[in-house]
Design a protein that fits this description.
Strand content: 35-45%
CATH topology of the largest domain: Glucose Permease (Domain IIA)
Number of helices: 4
CATH class of the largest domain: Mainly Beta
Order of helices and strands: HEEEEEEEEHHEEEEEEEEEEEEH
Structural class: alpha+beta
Distance between the termini: 66 Å
Length: 280
């Protein structure tokens, strides 16, 4: 009887203490890393259980509360990020992207047959582009993108993201990679760990082409390769030899064209190195 009264008293005291405890504040904050400009990769960290939206697109959130996203070459101005707590409370964060200038090279007097491939080549290139796009849509829940980033090869930087050539007044597609010039056979290593989702030895424009999946929509691409040392389905570790630099596809000399994507958004590897490098 005495024990029952004592337990009841303890229960009353617990309820009273709980009622007096201050309500826990909803955490709608997010820590963001990455450049505030076009072409940037961004990684965020919010409270576990929160949902995150980029404009109206819901982002996948890892079990640790991380999200990853990016903005393409033409993005500018205020971008809205919405954080939603499990209780439905919401907060909006504005990411202001600073304007960016790109190298534009105008070349006149170029023979037309040099500028425009024949119809069969165009058809082939379109089929291959569909294959590349499908590989980039093969999204997994790998967490490789959270690793600090390393360079995939040693060499001279010979081309930068966003640059564009205009032949005979006709704009060509912008360049979306970071070019690393080096002799044929120079090793190419994985800058992040990842899963091989495309390994093609001879595409029309890009020649030997390799694509790695790093999780949550982040992929990296390596083109103009002389030789591939991996195949689709392989899991590679950071720093592992994957391929060799070459001059395959439509190029004028041996180099690695390294690209980073978030989904179909093409991002700047140089910005990713600046903000997510292993030396940071």
């Amino acid at each position: 009887m005495l024990k029952a009264r004592w337990m009841a008293l303890l229960g009353v005291m617990f309820i009273a203490a709980t009622a007096m405890a201050p309500a826990r504040a909803t955490d709608l904050s997010i820590e963001l890393r990455g450049a505030r400009t076009a072409g940037t990769l961004m990684i965020g960290k919010t409270a576990v259980g929160n949902r995150v939206f980029l404009a109206e697109q819901e982002l996948s959130v890892t079990e640790t509360g991380h999200v990853v996203f990016g903005f393409g070459r033409e993005a500018s101005g205020a971008q809205q990020l919405h954080i939603e707590a499990p209780n439905g409370e919401r907060a909006t964060i504005s990411i202001e992207l600073q304007p960016r200038e790109y190298d534009i090279d105008r070349v006149d007097g170029v023979p037309q047959q040099t500028v425009t491939p024949d119809p069969e080549q165009v058809a082939r290139a379109r089929r291959e582009a569909q294959k590349v796009a499908a590989a980039r849509n093969d999204m997994s829940q790998r967490l490789d993108f959270l690793q600090p980033l390393i360079m995939p090869a040693e060499g001279r930087i010979s081309g930068v993201y966003g640059s564009q050539r205009i032949f005979n007044g006709e704009p060509r597609n912008p360049h979306y990679g970071l070019d690393i010039a080096a002799p044929t056979g120079t090793p190419v290593q994985a800058p992040w760990a990842g899963r091989v989702v495309l390994a093609e030895p001879d595409l029309f424009y890009s020649g030997g082409t390799l694509i790695l999946d790093h999780g949550y929509g982040v992929t990296s691409t390596y083109i103009h390769l002389h030789k591939l040392h991996v195949q689709v389905g392989d899991i590679v570790q950071q720093g592992q030899l994957m391929a060799e630099i070459g001059a395959t596809g439509r190029v004028t000399g041996p180099h690695l064209d390294w690209r980073i994507n978030w989904g179909q958004e093409r991002l700047d590897p140089a910005l990713a190195l600046e903000h997510f490098s292993i030396t940071e």
